[in-house]
Amino acid sequence: MTVQRLDIEQALPRMQALAARLWSPESRHHPGQLAWSAAYGEPEALGLGPAFLVDDAWAWLESADWLEVCGTDPDAVRAVVRAALAESADEVTASTLETETVAIDALLDHGFTEVGSPWFTHHLLDLADLPDVAVPAGYDVRAVRAGEHEQRSKVHRDAWSPTSKVTARAYERLMATPPYRPATDHVVVAPDGEWVASCCVWLDETTGVALVEPVGCVDAHARRGLATAASVSALTAARDLGATTGLVCPRGDDDYPAPARLYRRIGFVPGACTRTYRRG
Ligand SMILES: CC(C)(COP(=O)(O)OP(=O)(O)OC[C@H]1O[C@@H](n2cnc3c(N)ncnc32)[C@H](O)[C@@H]1OP(=O)(O)O)[C@@H](O)C(=O)NCCC(=O)NCCS
């Protein structure tokens, strides 16, 4: 089996197509998550490694010490994992969904062992059950417009961290990375015009699955339902564009429970959890 080695920029569309073709509630990868992972920061800041592809599987060194794997054909998955490990750091970590037995078996066969680590729980929502958008008085929620990458990246950093890699230049590039659409990237605007909460939703047209990634609200406006409003509004826009299922992947362990509570309050239902494996 010939494994093709490509830089992530060239590989991304093929990786997204395979993730969409193989997507099910039991699989880790969504085209929008891959776009976010490949473009949330400026390329020099992310240190992204190459991807290794065959028709039915890929392995991506998201960094020299972090491996992502996609595929359900055992021989194909083994081939791409083997190729990636030939270029990885000595110690490398991989995360899968607990349901991805083919990927897990390939990692175990290549010397990985499961390690304790914060885990994430995939949550799903039938978008027919999405509640109405409720915005507190004085606030407004709307879609981002082309050219607003500077403000959009700022509201993300203000909620997450001033040292976040999500710079204006990075967000401009992200906005040019399919399947990004401004129509499903929503912000909450405070009465004074400041952007205070945000939610980006990624609609995969192949599956109709709309991934929520990421969500944020600045501390000064917390617990007023603004992250909820941004999320419900962006998901509603995705549903209007044909999405049928919402997906979000918050932390599942007890150390950071707030986001999972937020999504469950919207109606998301927990599904499979991630597992972490390490080699070296
Ligand atoms: C998590 C975060 C998005 C919440 O934003 P928010 O606008 O305050 O959230 P909401 O007001 O819509 O809260 C909805 C529900 O989420 C839960 N929640 C939100 N913040 C919480 C907290 N700090 N502790 C516990 N539960 C919390 C509650 O159930 C809340 O409902 P309630 O206020 O009626 O109890 C915000 O704190 C944030 O940006 N954090 C940093 C980035 C992050 O972790 N993003 C989410 C992961 S993608």
UniProtKB/TrEMBL annotation:
Domain of life: Bacteria
The N-acetyltransferase domain, residue ranges: 139-280
InterPro entries for the chain: Acyl_CoA_acyltransferase, GNAT_dom
Protein name (Swiss-Prot/TrEMBL): N-acetyltransferase domain-containing protein
Organism: Nocardioides baculatus
